[in-house]
Amino acid sequence: MGKAQPLPILITGGGRRIGLALAWHFINQKQPVIVSYRTHYPAIDGLIKAGAQCIQADFSTNDGVMAFADEVLKSTHGLRAILHNASVWMAEKPGAPLADVLACMMQIHVNTPYLLNHALERLLRGHGHAASDIIHFTDYVVEAR
């Protein structure tokens, strides 16, 4: 009897920087991955060619989050982990309402992970003694002036 295929790891924001590096790390370990991306970068084509499932997602609205969750639910019976990495950073500019800046960042950094955790809960439970992991992190590139 063959070894069972491991459950995929879901990485939000996997098209660039640390999310992309993690996707490649897991692919090189023969670990299936599902990657969300907002903007199609050439790196996405490389991930797809290597076997990753890449799903375009718009996390700026709750409807976009739930549409992504529906795609994940259709594609797998379980998840090994969710790595919440999707991010958006808006510069604070004179005249830009700070409440709008904060609302945008909260949608991506707080609402999206919370909604995905609940929408995908059944994929995270019931996989033996080792529970699935939920990890939330982000990276930020500081631009020199």
From TrEMBL:
Q: Does Oxidoreductase show up as a keyword for this record?
A: yes
Query: Record's PANTHER family?
Result: DIHYDROMONAPTERIN REDUCTASE (PTHR43639:SF6), OXIDOREDUCTASE, SHORT-CHAIN DEHYDROGENASE/REDUCTASE FAMILY (AFU_ORTHOLOGUE AFUA_5G02870) (PTHR43639)
Q: Which InterPro entries match?
A: NAD(P)-bd_dom_sf, SDR_fam
Q: What is its EC number?
A: 1.5.1.3
* Domain of life where this protein originates: Bacteria
This chain belongs to the protein called: Putative short chain dehydrogenase
Q: Name one GO molecular function term.
A: dihydrofolate reductase activity
**Gene encoding this chain?**
folM_2
